[in-house]
Amino acid sequence: MAQTYDDADGPGRRGSSSDHPGEQGAEDPIRLLEIREAPLSVDEVFTAVGDDAAGGTALFVGTVRNHDSGTDVARLGYSSHPSAQAELRRVAEKVVAGHPVRALAAVHRVGDLEVGDLAVVVAVSCPHRAEAFDACRKLIDDLKHEVPIWKHQTFSDGSEEWVGV
């Protein structure tokens, strides 16, 4: 029996009242998950979540900013634990299980980045916009809290700081 979504079950909860495939979760909604050294592409992530049954697509782009807590950032580097890819998949699967996701993609950069570089791009498409916003927020928040990726910031005064360790 196909799983569907029904407002009676609560927003984003699996139910059984809709027979339309667009209201059901896609068979394999996880389309792109990577942790990579190469520069990221918003277009690549947006294209990965394209789905004719989706009425809403939410996209989040995280960039390297030029300051943190009142101190100028000169550059930063991201590093990850060997388990990071598996943890990213676990987070994505959790989002898919809790929301009517048609397609999901997440890419995080590691290595040395400059101010203005893209650090993370995530996107989710769902039947409706509110579901897409909720699922995208859950995806980025859980990625940042649960996937072992650490940031090493170098400030313009020469001081350094690790974040997320």
Plain-language structure description:
The protein is α+β, with helices and mostly antiparallel strands and 165 residues long. The protein has three helices and eleven strands. It has helices at 42-48, 84-98, 129-146; strands at residues 4-5, 14-15, 30-36, 56-63, 67-68, 71-80, 103-109, 111-114, 118-126, 149-155, 160-163. Strands 5, 6, 8, 10 and 11 form a five-stranded antiparallel beta sheet that branches. Strand 5 (67-68) and strand 6 form a beta hairpin. Helix 2 packs antiparallel against helix 3 (129-146).
Q: Care to count the β-strands?
A: 11
Helix content class: 10-25%
Which regions are unreliable across 5 or more consecutive residues at pLDDT < 50?
1-17
% residues in beta strands: 35-45%
Task: Give the mean pLDDT.
Answer: 88
Question: How does the helix and strand content classify structurally?
Answer: alpha+beta
Radius of gyration: 17 Å
Termini, distance in Å? 43 Å
Number of helices: 3
Shape call: elongated
- Main sheet? 5 strands, antiparallel
Secondary-structure element pattern, one letter each: EEEHEEEHEEEHEE
How does the SSE layout of this entry go?
Layout: E1 4-5, E2 14-15, E3 30-36, H1 42-48, E4 56-63, E5 67-68, E6 71-80, H2 84-98, E7 103-109, E8 111-114, E9 118-126, H3 129-146, E10 149-155, E11 160-163
Parallel strand pairs: 3-7
Antiparallel strand pairs: 1-2, 4-9, 5-6, 6-8, 6-10, 7-9, 10-11
